[in-house]
């Protein structure tokens, strides 16, 4: 069992737990909609339509790409018990690096496309890597340093698109449109769904493979299960921390690069962080527990929640923040589920006449 | 002392106060052995409740009271979940922070009819300490601040003395340092820890109210913008000692106030916004390296576990 799985105390009926969490969240959402005077059936229908109708699915798949990547960015370090909450910073770092390469390096698509993607992954990975020595050498927990690095990174990119990289005369802080050579090729008939989806799915496959089938994946899981044992067994915890954080940051950076290399082909200030991809990804990773292969399923669910809630706001006038609230409820139910198991165990003990 | 410098001190205190309230709450939790990283969400929740109730009632003090009460209630999620039932405090806190972000945005739209920012004309803010006008030093430093600013400073001193000198303070420290020993002496550990989390919630309510009714008179979506995380860093930096927390928060306040100054001479806001967080992180790293070195000299094995978030908040060496 993985570190995250243990922290979430995934028991035998493991599949029931995520389903239960989603059911509770759906019930809470229905309650909130009723309180707001909206028929929950219409509300949820609008939410699904907002994400899955023929006219919206193209955009929703782009959201899925980002959320899946961000769920990996949280899930990879979580395998060894580290929490990466700095996804926003890594996302914008990747986006701005890709935009910079696209805008300032001339070249054909065959050269520019991989270069932009690699630049984004390097930028995100580098930012996240900073937290590794801070944790292993200075003892600053990853969860704190990733967050404290995220705010300045977002502020710095905001500065860059407002001043040095800004499009002259634009009322919105944004970069100029990236050259055609840096546009990720879109699927036929689609405008948002593009090669980015393939890249992120490839990263997912590699992650699942490395996690389950390679020595490194095993080492990461051992370090997550018992850090002291891992060190005793000769594993280098600092190296594993660095590796998982660099990988996590690189995936987040990839998400940022993919976003700016898709419609409307610019880095627009706030456009990467405002949709809340990072915490949708966190929620998706927590819901998947310690099973990376489940990430596409949970990421799809949270895509419907976050992309669909915009449609819900349009159609039935329920604020889109409901999507965020429901994500939070899923996380809380997963964490607080021990309430139920503890209560049942306590009753069983009492019935057996033992002491608590 | 010239007026310019006193004005700078005033700006430092105003910037530091909201973070200080949250960090004092976090420090109490640290001393009681509870890992509380839900400060960000609680601060935001307090800021929102303060503005909403101040607007509906027309009385900013009712807003402050409501913020304290509502945030204390919100903190029960952590108290019941992570303390009473031993759920993972990190995941509970991540959920709470996200819940506060979503819920404040949702209620702001649904009940106040605003998106992004709620700052209607006539939103009652907390009054300044005008009575101090004309008093040397105190006038320029606190005259433009709300009473919540000096109260935060006083609280830091009071909590420090309270922890050190009172029997309840001693028990609270005992609960955090050695729960088993505290239990064997008849101290109800869980009850102490839950009460501490709720008090910390109330303090975050005060901090949020200062942010949205004092520092500015408005509520903006995600207006805490990481201040709760700076508070967590301050708690860690101070290893949960209230007076050191005060120092750490003043440092953050100074960085922010200095940033406002630099904006005044033309530096872009986006760059100066980043500075306080980086300063906090750098100082935290330096202090942790020192702590680690000391620990390693005493006990090399224990020092290796010092990177765990739960142990990094407590003044005693990790067991």
TrEMBL record, chain A:
GO terms for cellular component: plasma membrane. Keywords: Cell membrane, Membrane, Transmembrane, Transmembrane helix. Its main location: membrane. Signal peptide: none annotated. GO terms for molecular function: transmembrane transporter activity. It is a multi-pass membrane protein. It is found in: Cell membrane. The chain crosses the membrane at residues 12-37, 57-76, 88-105, 111-130, 142-161, 192-212, 240-261, 267-287, 294-312, 324-345. It holds the Pfam family BPD_transp_2. This is Nucleoside ABC transporter membrane protein. The lineage of its organism: Bacteria, Bacillati, Actinomycetota, Actinomycetes, Geodermatophilales.
From TrEMBL, chain B:
The keyword Cell membrane applies. GO terms for cellular component: plasma membrane. The chain crosses the membrane at residues 6-30, 37-56, 62-83, 90-108, 141-164, 229-254. InterPro entries: ABC_transp_permease. This is Nucleoside ABC transporter membrane protein. Keywords: Cell membrane, Membrane, Transmembrane, Transmembrane helix. The keyword Transmembrane helix applies. Pfam families: BPD_transp_2. GO terms for molecular function: transmembrane transporter activity. It is found in: Cell membrane. Signal peptide: none annotated. It comes from the Bacteria. It is a multi-pass membrane protein. It comes from Trujillonella endophytica.
């Amino acid at each position: 069992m993985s570190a995250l799985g243990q922290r979430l105390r995934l028991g035998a009926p493991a599949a029931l737990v995520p389903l239960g969490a989603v059911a509770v969240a759906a019930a809470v959402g229905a309650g909130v909609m009723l309180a707001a005077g909206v028929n929950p059936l219409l509300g949820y229908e609008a939410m699904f339509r907002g994400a899955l109708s023929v006219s919206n699915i193209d955009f929703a798949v782009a959201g899925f790409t980002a959320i899946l990547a961000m769920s990996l960015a949280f899930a990879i370090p979580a395998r060894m018990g580290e929490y990466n909450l700095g996804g926003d910073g890594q996302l914008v770092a990747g986006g701005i690096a890709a935009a910079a390469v696209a805008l300032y390096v001339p070249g054909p698509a065959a050269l520019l496309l991989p270069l932009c993607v690699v630049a984004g992954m390097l930028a995100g990975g580098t930012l996240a890597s900073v937290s590794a020595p801070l944790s292993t050498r200075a003892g600053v927990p990853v969860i704190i340093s990733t967050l404290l690095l995220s705010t300045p990174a977002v502020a710095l990119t905001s500065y860059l698109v407002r001043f040095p990289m800004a499009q002259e005369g634009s009322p919105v802080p944004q970069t100029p449109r990236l050259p055609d050579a840096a546009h990720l090729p879109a699927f036929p008939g689609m405008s948002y769904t593009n090669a980015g989806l393939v890249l992120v799915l490839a990263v997912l496959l590699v992650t699942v493979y490395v996690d389950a089938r390679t020595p490194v994946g095993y080492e990461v899981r051992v370090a997550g299960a018992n850090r002291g044992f891992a060190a005793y067994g000769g594993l280098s915890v600092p190296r594993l921390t660095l590796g998982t954080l660099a990988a996590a940051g690189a995936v987040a950076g990839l998400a940022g690069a993919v976003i700016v290399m898709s419609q409307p082909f610019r880095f627009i200030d706030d456009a990467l962080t405002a949709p809340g991809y990072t915490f949708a990804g966190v929620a998706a990773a927590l819901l998947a527990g310690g099973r990376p292969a489940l990430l596409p399923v949970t990421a799809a669910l949270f895509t419907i929640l976050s992309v669909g809630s915009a449609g819900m706001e349009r159609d039935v006038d329920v604020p889109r923040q409901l999507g965020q609230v429901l994500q939070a409820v899923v996380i809380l139910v997963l964490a607080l589920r021990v309430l139920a198991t503890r209560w049942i165990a306590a009753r069983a003990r009492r019935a057996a006449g033992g002491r608590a | 002392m010239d007026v310019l410098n006193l004005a700078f001190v005033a700006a430092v205190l105003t910037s530091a106060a909201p973070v200080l309230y949250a960090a004092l709450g976090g420090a109490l939790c640290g001393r009681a052995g509870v890992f509380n990283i839900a400060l960000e969400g609680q601060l935001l929740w307090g800021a929102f409740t303060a503005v909403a109730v101040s607007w509906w009632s027309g009385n900013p003090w009712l807003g402050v009271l409501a913020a304290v009460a509502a945030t204390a209630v919100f903190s029960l999620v952590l108290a019941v979940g992570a303390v009473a039932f031993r759920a993972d405090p990190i995941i509970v806190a991540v959920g709470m922070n996200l819940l506060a972000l979503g819920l404040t945005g949702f209620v702001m739209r649904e009940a106040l009819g605003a998106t992004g920012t709620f700052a209607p004309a006539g939103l009652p803010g907390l009054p300044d300490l005008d009575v101090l006008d004309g008093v040397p030093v105190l006038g320029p430093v606190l005259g433009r601040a709300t009473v919540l600013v000096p109260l935060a400073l006083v609280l830091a001193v009071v909590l420090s003395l309270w922890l050190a000198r009172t029997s309840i303070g001693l028990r609270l420290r005992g609960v955090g340092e050695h729960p088993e020993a505290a239990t064997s002496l008849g101290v109800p550990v869980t009850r102490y820890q839950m009460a501490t989390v709720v008090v910390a919630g109330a303090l975050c309510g005060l901090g949020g109210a200062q942010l949205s009714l004092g520092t500015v008179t408005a509520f903006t979506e995600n207006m805490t913008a990481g201040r709760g995380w700076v508070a967590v860093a301050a708690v860690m930096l101070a290893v949960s000692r209230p007076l050191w927390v005060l120092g750490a928060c003043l440092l953050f306040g100074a960085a922010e106030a200095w940033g406002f100054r630099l904006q005044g001479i033309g530096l872009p806001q986006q760059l100066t916004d980043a500075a306080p967080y980086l300063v906090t992180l750098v100082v935290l790293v330096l202090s942790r390296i020192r702590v680690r070195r000391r620990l390693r000299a005493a006990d090399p094995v224990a020092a290796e576990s010092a990177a765990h978030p739960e142990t990094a908040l407590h003044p005693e060496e990790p067991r």
